[in-house]
Design brief:
Layout lengths: L5 E5 L3 E6 L3 E6 L3 E3 L1 H18 L3 E6 L3 E4 L1 H10 L5 E7 L3 H13 L6 E4 L2 H13 L1
Parallel strand pairs: 3-5, 4-6, 5-7, 7-8
Antiparallel strand pairs: 1-2, 2-3
Length: 134
């Protein structure tokens, strides 16, 4: 199934689109190396989106473009996934490096919302839609 995404904004390193108003698709720029400053900027953007929406939203985060992510960045994202703002997050891992980064994040973080690894944006959207139904 193909999902139509609507581009809605960006930070200095990440582009944001939506699907069905409450699913935010997060795509870092190619070759991106995540650091704490960038993580704070991205998490603030994502939280503001959810607050402005007025209801919980889901995240599909495309890790395919990511080259690295430091421990401080992981902490920002893990602590920023507030259950009153987000109902789940799917990490798209379409290559071995992104799969390693995603697995490392899940293994070291204690997310407060459901979190999974998926192979595509479409799989992430489908997973989040199932959470909303449940």
């Amino acid at each position: 199934m193909t999902y139509k995404l609507k581009k809605i904004g960006n930070t200095f390193n990440t582009e944001y689109s939506t699907y069905d108003f409450d699913i935010l698709v997060v795509v870092p720029t190619p070759g991106y190396k995540d650091n704490v400053e960038a993580a704070r900027s991205n998490m603030e953007w994502q939280q503001a989106f959810a607050r402005n929406l007025g209801r919980k939203c889901g995240l599909v985060v495309v890790l395919n473009n990511l080259l690295s992510q430091d421990a401080e960045s992981r902490k920002v994202y893990s602590e920023g996934m507030l259950p009153d703002l987000f109902y789940g997050s799917a990490l798209v891992v379409g290559n071995p490096l992104s799969r390693a980064i995603g697995s490392f994040f899940i293994g070291l973080s204690k997310p407060a919302v459901p979190l999974t690894l998926v192979s595509s944006i479409e799989d992430g959207i489908a997973w989040l839609e199932n959470i909303k139904k449940g």
